[in-house]
Amino acid sequence: MKKIFVTQPLLPPIEDFIQETKDIFDSKWLTNMGQKHQQLEEKLKDYLQVGGISLTVNGHLALELSIQALDLKDAKSGNGEVITTPFTFISTTHSIVRNGLKPVFADIDPDTCCITPETIESLITENTVAIMPVHVYGNVCDVEGIEALAKKHNLKVIYDAAHTFGVQVKVNGETRGIGSFGDVSIFSFHATKVFNTIEGGAACFSDESLYRKLYNLKDFGIRYGNPDYIEAVGANAKMNEFSAAMGLCNLRYIDDALAKRKAIAELYREKLSDIEGVSLPSFNDPKTELVKCNYAYMPVVFSSDVFGPGFRDKIMAVMAEQQVFSRKYFYPLTNDAQCYEGQFSSDGANGSNPTPHAFKLANEVLTIPIYAALDLEDVERISEIIKQTVKQHGK
Length: 395
Ligand SMILES: *Cc1c(COP(=O)(O)O)cnc(C)c1O
Known about the structure:
Largest sheet: 7 strands, mixed
Bound molecules: pyridoxal-5'-phosphate
Mean pLDDT: 96
Shape: globular
Order of helices and strands: HHEHEHEHEHEEEEEHHHEEEHHHEH
Structural class: alpha/beta
Number of strands: 13
């Protein structure tokens, strides 16, 4: 039986990649902000509808360097708190901690899987310096509510938009790219994401001064145009030319890929609706209109109230027996990660804020296969496995 994984990378026809990389062999310029890097920045700026963009070697370093570029440390205490979500990939939380800041975990709205202005606001203290929400699964946060909150309390906002490549929302009658919100929004172009550059990422912003700051930070902190001047403790986070070339190729096929994902998501929705105890999170914040969705993940929630605890893991195992490999995005919660034991906890131990909704969802959700090349017959088969398993093992 063929194996079906939770995702499969988007790949252009190999001829496209050969053609695109010929230029690199001719110029012998392999990295350090070459032609392809420049071209991809320009194309993505348009596609994502953002004011400015800086490409990076991955999404994680885009997060780390964005925090550094915004100088989030509280001047008085030398540290500061960043309000964020535990229902995310571990990268989000690590980026805060690795910058010497303290993550404070807000609970999620179980229906949108995102943190909300309400869950955020109650955690704001005089030590809060920023909010780092995540647009989970390609769904979006209440961007307007969060913006109003940030203004009111004078806080920076960095969106982890790793899942929301190409997503557009409508606010005040205006259609905007999701990367245009917050002080910075970061994307991941990892192989497993909707759009990939093999490994890669980007930070998007509207404050133009961030372009040079990030440019220097991803190049060891060496000042652009003055290699004798090291202005910051930077990292090496430059996107190389082969990755940028892959991005230029994949960008030609992204809209086709999004259309295929849409058809798959709609078929799953049709097949998996009306099963008692099985639900699909609603892909819209009640206050934010999603104009263009990217169907980055296909989360399915198996109610522990209906099936008892552990059913999600059981269904995952049954699917694996049929060579269908799903993933527990996101389990464990980042505030329950082993490396943070004794510091944070989803149950409120160690003085941390409890996140019961996130904890419940982390134990009930399974993300099932979705990618542009997935056959609709396989979508039907996967849906059938779920239905049959629920019938046999469920109540
Ligand atoms: C993938 C991902 C990242 C990290 O991106 P990389 O490109 O893999 O470094 C960060 N946050 C979230 C929510 C992600 O899914």
